[in-house]
Amino acid sequence: MPEAEKHASMANAIRALAMDAVEAAKSGHPGLPMGAADIATVLFTRHLKFDPTDPNWPDRDRFVLSAGHGSMLLYSLLYLLGYDEMTIEELKNFRQLGSKTAGHPEVGEAPGIETTTGPLGQGIANAVGMALAERMLNARFGDGIIDHHTYVLCSDGDLMEGISQEAIALAGHLKLSRLIVIFDDNHITIDGDISLSDSTDQVARVEASGWNAVRIDGHDPEQIDRALTDARQSDRPTLIAARTTIGFGAPNKAGKSAAHGSPLGEKEVQEARERLDWPYEPFHIPADILDAWRITGLRARPRRKAWQERFEGLDAELRGEFARTMAGDLPPRLDRAIAELKREYAAEPPTLASRKASQAVLECIVPVVPEMIGGSGDLTGSNNTRTSEMKAVAPGDFSGSFIHWGIREHGMAAAMNGMALHKGLIPFSGTFLTFSDYCRPAIRLAALMRQRVIFVMTHDSIGLGEDGPTHQPVEHLAALRAIPNLTVLRPADAVETAECWQLALATSTGPSVIVLTRQNLTPMRGEYEEDNLCRRGAYVIADCSGDAEVSLFATGSEVAIAVAAKDLLDERGHPTRVVSIPSFDLFAQQSDVYRQEIIGTAPLRIGVEAAIRQGWDAIIGEHGLFVGMTGFGASGPYEELYRHFGITAEAICEKALARLEPKETD
Amino acid sequence: MPEAEKHASMANAIRALAMDAVEAAKSGHPGLPMGAADIATVLFTRHLKFDPTDPNWPDRDRFVLSAGHGSMLLYSLLYLLGYDEMTIEELKNFRQLGSKTAGHPEVGEAPGIETTTGPLGQGIANAVGMALAERMLNARFGDGIIDHHTYVLCSDGDLMEGISQEAIALAGHLKLSRLIVIFDDNHITIDGDISLSDSTDQVARVEASGWNAVRIDGHDPEQIDRALTDARQSDRPTLIAARTTIGFGAPNKAGKSAAHGSPLGEKEVQEARERLDWPYEPFHIPADILDAWRITGLRARPRRKAWQERFEGLDAELRGEFARTMAGDLPPRLDRAIAELKREYAAEPPTLASRKASQAVLECIVPVVPEMIGGSGDLTGSNNTRTSEMKAVAPGDFSGSFIHWGIREHGMAAAMNGMALHKGLIPFSGTFLTFSDYCRPAIRLAALMRQRVIFVMTHDSIGLGEDGPTHQPVEHLAALRAIPNLTVLRPADAVETAECWQLALATSTGPSVIVLTRQNLTPMRGEYEEDNLCRRGAYVIADCSGDAEVSLFATGSEVAIAVAAKDLLDERGHPTRVVSIPSFDLFAQQSDVYRQEIIGTAPLRIGVEAAIRQGWDAIIGEHGLFVGMTGFGASGPYEELYRHFGITAEAICEKALARLEPKETD
């Protein structure tokens, strides 16, 4: 078969499968796979380094379909290339419950899916994280072990989302030359022509961010090939703006938004088959075309085998370290290091802001867990996420282990997801808790993708003081606790901070948020306990003798306040116990027996948290008392704010007494 | 006084007040006010159109301090210009509880503060909304009534945040030539030199988005003046990149991040006074300098008076309409229009997705409330936010009332805030509920600023079906309900949709989110009720005879499921009532008596919502049953998903029977 004809057939195989699957599902997005089929064919047959028989090969090129709605492009490719689990049956079950072919690609559903995409812009930022991880691992393990590219296929929508511009600016700054973004420039959005909402010169815009960029005809295989070849030589990241026709091949809907997000319809599909000279039955790929794709799947096998040999030839220690970190296993020394630190703290309990305690913990554990990569969204001195030994990554120099993400919280969080997805590194980075809102779509995806990404969120309440309500979280704890598979940790002192770090690192199947104070905290845990008491989410931190009349439940900085209130109530003859709840999420996972034991039987339950009540009724009951916030904060010194909003030991005591001794106080 | 000397003295007055206030507060950000004092002096003395005696003059130029941490710049200006409420005492009480001088500027605290800033990037996007509102009102009321500029002072951080690039791209596309952004290009971020995290060519980047841009020396009054003059002539929005020295005047800290976010210290302030030739006591402004500023405050008074005359000369109807819309009053006809629609629905109850019901409501009310401005983040046909009569705003043509925001949810939400802050328009715009996460920082600010902005969020649960978990909200209802002063509305059918729109419009002191389904809903409200039953957040939608054994509580699409479950339970001899809860927020505001009446006394309470349980314990109690989601959704046809996740009448009935008839089912 002549080369051009072969290319066309291979690309048309993608188009046909996409049309057929969307038609069968009665929903989905045929436009992108049909429009980008030529790009994908050239990329996968001539450039991408991968081996379907070893989809987890650490040095494979990564391919990110940032425009996740075009999922049938990816599923078609995986089937055509011979990825084991992506059978033709899966394509026929596109968008059906239980299939591996969800509406948008989901990492973990089938090998070859590198990340979960759909929410636009996230894929580009994931890819920036992958490309950064690649260079950092390259700096650690050398060209023989990690030396690959990261390719992205993105849409107008990806580039319109602000997150992508954050990630693009960072990639340009750091000169991530192994990152190649192909922009499916089809001029069409859901509402219609791009001119309805945008007139950005995307090439000039990324050039302003330090990228190499080029415009090509996205249906001309040679132009695509040349652009990819050039991009691989560039010393900067590259954007290839590939002009395409959405729904290429559909006689009436091509080039229109009608091709974007719904089945073409039986008649249009029939006519598209004629137009594309594709006379085959739905879901049928002729043997010669399938063979051509399967041979492409074999292309990089020799390189993968050579890599394997190089890997086996590595120094045993380095090989072990690479294998351990790629597997995501923690070094056994970690637990010992934390135990030692807890012993020190028990011997000499420190009064520290938990953000400072966190830095102390990091000083102790990062040397033991060198795959931990710190960072901050331009709040390094406030988030305390940089240890004294950490060198910052700089343009072209990836030997460091700390990243200045800039004022780009969303891009930071999504790039951290990409680093975790790449494997080999454990990213942790900080911003203020109130700006968790800026990161939220990426935090959600970390949870959905089950990635170990550790978000360090400091300045966690009105306790930050004078910066005022724009910077004071009140609803953020509740909002984060609401995200499934996200572990929110709010330690009460230095010991709990150490334990929470231990838990976050051990949580390998999901992200954690460690929530820390700006203000100093009184030590609460004076005695050494080998057990990680935060592990079950809640525990009795101060008990009373005899049956408790009052159970106080508190988190973080409010634990000390609750313990002070307990002293007042004890003095008044009302035996009171205090439960610290470093993690609602972990507590919710405990047995009913444990939960009931911790919730206890005291007739009066009081929750104390400098935040809103939502979520607390599950612990204190609908008739429990709550001492916290009911609205936004205010600007002022933090001690005054705590008094102003009534979050003090005295206020707790007063509220409790109004219930316990109604005659006296009513 | 020679002009140059006068300028220097006036600018130094800002610098001195900023240093003094931060010193007195022992916290704050002196660097920006000192660096940008020359810019602000030229802008306010020679360009900005304003009148301190009428701070709400509708045609005033708007000034947005996007870099809100530099709040002392704004407070100093307001004091120097003679704004009534900004006394020297307020400056002395900078960042103290109860002052008007919060850490970051807060709209409503004092006249002259146009928006609440601090979370970076938001101010630029607010300003885009203001500039857009200006042009739209100009198209409606003419050059004589609305014809002003919107000025922004922003920082590196503002431009690094993705939201600003969304807003900038839209402003360039729409050719918002009245928008002038001055970039305080001081090369310093909190972590240090900008080169740690960024090497973007900001001028080239905005030019790629269709802006005019220029670089100037931000300490040269004549360059500043010329750039502003040129910008006012441009047919495009303008970025003026003004190179400045952060902390200008501080002998040791100027040009360093040390000047950014903490007091300079007594010695440095003393030396800065010498350097700036400012021998005056803290907080003391010599009479001649204060006079020069106060005279500036009088500059535009004749223009304001001329405006007043033009306004009074307007056609009475137009004048009345302008006054009404600027005051934010709704037309009396609105309630009648909604009552008529409810009567129609009662006569012929429609089976409609609530997003389609919402469109029908809009078709009915937008003609009555012409200040309503629709829009969508490129999901117009899905969000159903465009009525048949609405024309879209286009580059240079602002006569429409619908905005194609593009795939820029965050920029959209923040620009809507700016439109509301401008006054005269009521913005409502849509995206999918899952992407409320992308808008979240702006939604929070709408709530904090008490602005009437209506977010229409469709595709509100697993009910969206095949698009899968990336697009299926499960935690978003809880997360939105957590935001103080935000009214979340989730109607159960077409009648409730009409009532929810009525409530959202009537909520003039805060934003609302109207949460709508993709899938069809069975009508629940067959009888006409004059009263808006959604008004109190929850009401009995289906009662039983005699004492209820079961109370079912549900929202939105789950109300029909709960009513079907009630029928099953009634049949089994367990009298069951159903409560519809269109708004948790409104319900929480009701009296205890009303709340208790609605919660009722049935021994078994069950909550039903295709979302997580968080927040429900306040209604169903900690031992109540909940039928909903415990994790992320899945991709598949929606009816199958409801069955798969056990959110069906049968599943509710089964769970209830396990409690009600334990011997039979256990």
Report strand % of chain A: 5-15%
Distance between the termini of chain A: 93 Å
Instruction: Give me the CATH architecture of the largest domain in chain A, please.
Output: 3-Layer(aba) Sandwich
Q: Please indicate the count of domains of chain A.
A: 3
What structural category arises from helix and sheet content of chain A? Answer: alpha/beta
Helix fraction bin of chain A: 40-55%
Biggest contact: A-B, 110 and 110 residues
Largest β-sheet summary of chain A: 6 strands, parallel
CATH secondary-structure class of the largest domain in chain A: Alpha Beta
Q: Name the poorly predicted regions of chain A.
A: none
Instruction: Report strand order across the widest sheet of chain A.
Output: 10-9-11-12-14-13
| Mean pLDDT score of chain A | 97
